[in-house]
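Lab notebook page, bench 4
Experiment: in silico fold of construct C2
Operator: M.H.
Input chain length: 244 residues
Purpose: comparison with the prior construct
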Amino acid sequence: MDILKKRLHEKIEESRRQFPNKSLSAEETEKIHQRRKHERERKKKKKKGMKLKASQETQEDETANVEQNVKEAVEDTHEVPLVFNKVEVHDEPLNKIIKKKEKKERVKGNITPMTGKNYKQLLSRLEARKSKLEELRAKDQEKAKEFESKIKWTNVLYKAEGLKIKDDEGMLKTALKRKEKQREQRKKRWDKRLQQTTEKMQQRQDKRKRNIKKKKMAKIEKKKNRARKKGRVMPEDLAKSNIK
């Protein structure tokens, strides 16, 4: 602190020598002192930041060198030969391709099992299968028998896996009727619910309109009562008293 004060006094004396007519007050000297102090602190911070940055850069370089050395050591110890394979590029996503492949593997004898709850589709497939059998019977009885036995064996294999085969036309028709009836019932319930909600909405709207009208009439009646108190005569009053 003594050194700083000494330097400050030297600067003051120098400024006095440069400007002999101007005398510095205590406040001005204090301002100069504070300014120089801030300048010194700023320089120190800048120097510290530069040192910190340099140390970080050196640490990063050291870590990079270590990683490179480790990588080179691993490459030297484990020499892996390069293998060139063919890569198939598909437009479709990989999941779809895998699913299709699995589905093909599951399908036995190139016959899709009659399963599911889409009874309309199952009936159309059953009719297509029957028409195909009839065509084969008309052309070649042996091929028709082979196709029929193939269908039976594939159905047996699917049943062994736990699948429920739905190839009975009568049962499919009854199931389809039942499903359509349920759909109609659901539609009726939905329409009824929709009608009820619309009616409730309309009732609320009507109630709101009535309340608004009631409030307006109450305001008008209030104004009329005030006017009557002031001595005014309303047309309704004249009509009640039969005065023309």
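Observations: Helices lie at 2-18, 26-77, 94-106, 119-139, 141-160, 169-229, 235-240. The longest helix spans residues 169-229.
Next step: discuss at group meeting.
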